[in-house]
Amino acid sequence: MERHLTKSENAGGYISPSMQLGMALRFCAGGSYLDIHDRYGVSSSSFYSLVFACLELIVEHYPIVFPTDPAGFKELAAGFRQRQHEHMRVFLHALGALDGILLKIRQPSVSEIPQPTLYHCRKGFHALNVQAVCDAYKRYTYCAIDMPGSTHDSRAFANSSLAHAISTGCIPEPYYLLGDAAYKGNASILTPYIGNLHADESVFSFYHSSLRMTIEGSFGMLVNKWAILQGPIKLAISRAPIVIKACMALHNLIITHNLPTAPPLKPPSRSLSRNNTAATRPWIGGVLAETLCVADCRFDAHGVTHRREKIKNIMTKLEMKRPTMRTERERIEADRLRV
């Protein structure tokens, strides 16, 4: 990327592209501009122009773009299949995990925003509502950073470009996104059951959440790595999205260059069904489980409820159970020994 950064003139001489990149990285990592411009010998008046020129270049050269081609869909779905245990692969067409995060900003002025109170969120601080989708490796494949902090996740996503693309058929059957209950009502977003759950609904919601939490982990990695996102972003509100997008692009770049094999979900230590083992039930394997899922989901009706019910029924056929707590396993084992 250095060849795209031109040398910049400063009161003390020229700032090389590598120095500009170093300043931008240190700024995103939470460094104070006072320390950075002193360390690199840059005047305070030219510091922000140099840093933001670099951040804009990062966003331009490493864009976060949601795929729209069949090959991209297959690659994303394969990543989430790999994260599931080979005998429990029921979410075969997940393209990403969707959620929102509130990132703190300084209080906007009336000259910037006619209604600054819109950015005061329910958690008691001013923020931007960031909607994001990540893949199985926690890399961001989509982000929308244009809604104030007081906006509910469902509304923020409904006003995003991805929601508009979905409404025009961007995500074809049988693919879908994984989201929490805030996103219910969208046929292309698979959400968990809520309220008082039956046993089979609880099983579905558990394994659904285990995959969906990929986005929660991605947010945690992002904020922990780039400390500028931990406190209020003390910049003009028009510049805050550039910083956030650049941090997300750098997050993706780091993961891609150190890409590990996605670990599968940990299978239950002991099922509530005593005969739920590969030895006693050899017919339940990865191939058959995927065959059942494909047969049920390929001809799914256009509604999340139908898709959810079909996957739940497949889980019942596979006798999938929630992992039991240690105390519950000990009680079951004690009851078995008494018998």
Q: What would your notes on this structure say?
A:
With 339 residues, the protein is of the alpha/beta class. It folds into three domains: 2-61, no CATH class; 70-257; 286-338, no CATH class. It is 43% helix and 12% strand. The protein is built from eleven helices and seven strands. The protein has helices spanning 17-28, 33-39, 44-61, 70-82, 153-158, 161-167, 199-225, 240-257, 286-297, 304-317, 326-338; strands at 8-10, 13-15, 94-104, 127-134, 140-148, 176-178, 189-190. The strands form two sheets. Strands 5-4-3-6-7 form a five-stranded mixed beta sheet. The longest helix is centred in the middle third of the chain and has 27 residues, at 199-225.
List keywords for this structure.
alpha/beta, 3 domains, 5-stranded mixed beta sheet, two-stranded antiparallel ribbon, 11 helices
Topology:
Blueprint: E1 8-10, E2 13-15, H1 17-28, H2 33-39, H3 44-61, H4 70-82, E3 94-104, E4 127-134, E5 140-148, H5 153-158, H6 161-167, E6 176-178, E7 189-190, H7 199-225, H8 240-257, H9 286-297, H10 304-317, H11 326-338
Parallel strand pairs: 3-6, 6-7
Antiparallel strand pairs: 1-2, 3-4, 4-5
Helix pairs in contact: 1-3, 3-8, 7-10, 9-10
Question: How would you briefly describe this protein structure?
Answer:
Helix content is 43%, strand content 12%. The protein is an alpha/beta fold.
Order of helices and strands: EEHHHHEEEHHEEHHHHH
Radius of gyration over C-alpha positions, nearest whole angstrom: 24 Å
> Which blocks of ≥5 consecutive residues have pLDDT under 50?
267-288, 294-302
Instruction: Kindly give the count of domains.
Output: 3
Helix run count: 11
The rounded distance between the terminal residues' Cα atoms is 69 Å
How many extended strands? 7
How would the global form be characterised? elongated
Mean pLDDT: 83
Class of secondary structure makeup? alpha/beta
**Beta-strand share of residues:** 5-15%
Helix content: 40-55%
Strand order of the largest sheet: 5-4-3-6-7
The main pleated sheet reads as: 5 strands, mixed
